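Entry:
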Amino acid sequence: MTSHYSLHQLGWKPFFQHQLSLEELDDYTPARVFGIERSFIQIFTPDAIEWLAITQSMPALAVGDWILIDHQAQFVRLLDRASLFVRKAAGTRAYQQLISANIDTVFIVSSLNNDFNLNRIERYLVLAHEAGVEPVVLLTKADLCDDSSQFVDKVQSLDPMLAVFAVNAHKIESLQPLALWLTSGSTLAFLGSSGVGKSTLVNSLLGEAVQETKGIREDDSKGKHTTTARSLHMTASGVLLLDTPGMRELQLVECEAGLEQTFADIYELSKQCRFSNCRHQTEPGCAVLAAIDSGQLDARRLSHFQKLEKEQALNAATLAEKRAQDKRFGKLVKSVKKTKQRSH
């Protein structure tokens, strides 16, 4: 299948250009991963749209990645990522799951019904900050809310510099404030729970029903999964949109920097605590607890920060142990192979 997009329209930037040698510029073609199925990846180049079989020699890839391919459309190498969203795999499995790569802005989507949850929004903010991606919070279903401004204020209280908008995903005029981020060649991701309106937002911005949408259960405002795989789509104005499946479980791992940026107020207050190792529980001279007593800091925010800090530390330790086990197993396999070779 032919493609009629320039590298710029596909999201190519100097960051990627600088990674190529002169020989690679001559011999290989940059390609962007637009979709990943069970055993294939869909790639776009300026000249073609291809499906590549995933092989064991290929690294783990994410939608949004840039790779190099040769003249036979075979994988050569993965380019360094400008940003990467990861989470601990759902359940008890001890490995990281790649969500998306090379995102410029992430729209954190929450609806103005029973789904609205500051803890969940903070969790997504940690993920965005760890990835080094600018977050924008979109509060959907504003048409069904009597006073959306109070919810905007609640989210804005998390970070005065955070961009927060209440929108009606079905009306394109409601999305006009997003024009600042909707520039040609930019890659935007939508993250949020099922049923909050991510696919509806994508369809509105694309101007066509590309993503299937479903309703929510009225009794608890829980959404139904519509998007089942991550995929990139391009608007008529050249903006790349990434829709992701709703994530019921988003466990953080190895995200100390994201925590520090998301909860910068708590980190700053902790510097004033009497003890450098203060845990902000019952210690005397705790500036964080004093801020809660004075109304400067919400007790919910401290409680959630401590929960996320413990969660990410536990998950990081679990992953570290899994890596150590894999390393030990790899050495054992090599040792067995050497022993067999000597015996022959």
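Residues 209-228 have pLDDT under 50 and may be disordered.
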